[in-house]
Design brief:
Blueprint lengths: L1 H33 L23
Amino acid sequence: MTDTRLGRKIAAMIALAWLGACLAGCVSDLGAATGDTSGTHQMRYYGGPKYPMWPSQ
């Protein structure tokens, strides 16, 4: 009988730890999304072809 209680307590603690980790991840994503307050919305160039791939273009 005490094994069942111990199992439930361990499962509850694991569930709470998992929920806390998920909430921390959401909070960190929210902080990263709202951290850009520079006001400039310029497109960035990340590489790739600068010229057309075929000479006919």
